[in-house]
Amino acid sequence: MSYDVVVIGSGPGGYVAAIRCAQLGMKTAIVERYNTLGGTCLNVGCIPSKALLDSSEHYFNATHTFKEHGIDVGSLKLNLKQMINRKSDVIEQNVSGIAYLMKKNKIEVHHGHGTIKSATQIEVKGDDGNSSVIDTKKIIIATGSKPTTPDAFNYDKNRVITSTEALNIDKLPKRMIVIGGGVIGLELGSVFARLGTEVEVVEYMDRILIGMDKDCARELKKTMKKMGVTFHTGHMVTEVKGAKTSVSVKAKKKGTEDEIELKADYCLISIGRRPYTDNLGLENVGIKTDERGRIEVDEHLQTSAANIYAIGDVIKGAMLAHKAEDEGVFVAELIAGQKPHIDYNLIPGVVYTWPEVAAVGITQEEAKEQGIPVKVGKFPFKALGRARASMDVDGLVKVVAHQDTDEVLGVHIVGARAADMIMEAVALMEFRATAEDISRICHPHPTYTEAIKEAALAATDNRPLHL
User: Fold this and answer.
1) Interatomic CA distance for residues 196 and 257, integer angstroms
2) CA-to-CA distance for 405 and 187, rounded, in angstroms?
3) What is the rounded CA–CA span in Å between residue 47 and residue 41?
4) Fewest CB within a 10 Å sphere: which of 75, 103, 154, 392?
5) pLDDT tens, 281-296?
6) What dotted CATH number matches 346-461?
7) For 209-243, what is each residue's pLDDT tens digit?
8) Catalytic residue (one of 58, 69, 300, 445)
9) Where are the domains of the chain?
10) β-strand 273-275 against 145-147: which pairing, if any?
């Protein structure tokens, strides 16, 4: 068993890297420790969480907005087990699709835990304990990440859980505590809040969605509070105790001795993720990691070991599936002798709550920190005819442009279909468009994207048409 390239990990970064390598004529293999392909994203992350987000949004609308639309549904009943079953079916379809792509591209799959023995050899140990060694000219590490679970939080997979276990709860909890006001916590917290669970979010920082635009974070928090979610920002968790059927959490208000104690059916730990490099054999080839356990790479995503590259969650940068995919293509093309490029500033980020939050480029706060003079334009969804028609009036669009050149430096959206809308901003920023460029593009009416045009008008010379 000898290959041109072996990819360790079959998540979005790994399987896309393998496909691109195969397309470029390299004999390629993937090593995957689990029985199914797709990594965290397809099995216990992006895809299943979006399935539940969509299902829970349908239920929420049926119970809260259908009547106003003139739709009487009569007796309504939640079937959470069926919701979970549908989620599992979605996973199976996607995982099967990846397996098909491997066969189509003649990529050989080796199931088992991969350990790097040298720059050209990987040992694969199966669940049965048997091992084999495969030879390769190049190695791409794409092993992804795992939820961060501090020992003090007493993670037991029963009542103190991570997103992995939360995706399989088939009996609706009455109460849930979410530790962490980031993307994962807010997404899964909103799933259960929509279904009727009392959700309380405990966040160490003084605001949610650190790193994203403050106005958007504030707007989302306001919307989620209307849904019934309670927030305890500026609180440090001091104790988590899980019992057989319940959990308790203690937290202190930062800078004080004031303590709160919360009790619930589940406590969801969502304070971030760590690079997964357990038993990967980095020490065998002298690969270095930083203080957060991330593999150190150069501008070509090459490690300190010859012929070994790393992509996705195991290296620095946002832990995003689409970032990993782009890096997978980048490395494959680099190995093939091409000259690919990634603009990390133009990789969008999305929070799939409802309303959604999406952003690309720098925030107003980051511009201030970097000493960049900017002008800002905002436009609320409530001023859109399309938003009124669909009853999706929560949210806003914010355009950040350079004060002198008018070049768009960042676009931040909270609102209906923000995840899809953000690509207009990404495409235009790729070509270094100005706010005036956006404002002069004819947008179809009535659409949500008109808010982008209006925000650009506001940024250009403070002249939105519908505000």
Assistant:
1) 32
2) 37
3) 6
4) 75
5) 999 999 999 999 999 9
6) 3.30.390.30
7) 999 999 999 999 999 999 999 999 999 999 999 99
8) 445
9) 2-146+274-342, 151-271, 346-461
10) antiparallel
Separation of CA 170 from chain center: 23
Q: Which of 442, 457, 450, 432 is nearest to 376 (CA)?
A: 457
Q: How many CB atoms lie within 10 A of CB 135?
A: 12
| Residue ranges of E strands in 131-187 | 131-141, 145-147, 160-161, 175-179
* Domain 2-146+274-342 of CATH type 3.30.1490.100: no
Q: Is the pLDDT of residue 461 over 90?
A: no
The better pLDDT of the pair 74, 98 is held by: 98
* Rounded CA separation 282/117 (Å): 9
| Whether the model pTM is above 0.85 | yes
Distance CA 267, CA 100 (A): 37
pLDDT tens digits, one per residue of 119-162? 999 999 999 999 999 999 999 999 999 999 999 999 999 999 99
Task: Return the closest-CA partner of residue 384 out of 345, 416, 356.
Answer: 416
Whether the Cβ atoms of residue 237 and residue 265 lie closer than 8 Å to each other: no
Active site residue 412: no
Condensed to tens digits (0 to 9), the pLDDT of residues 76-98 reads 999 999 999 999 999 999 999 99
Q: In angstroms, how far is the first alpha carbon of the chain from the final one? A: 66
For domain 151-271, the CATH architecture is: 3-Layer(bba) Sandwich (3.50)
**Cβ of 81: how many Cβ atoms within 10 Å?**
10
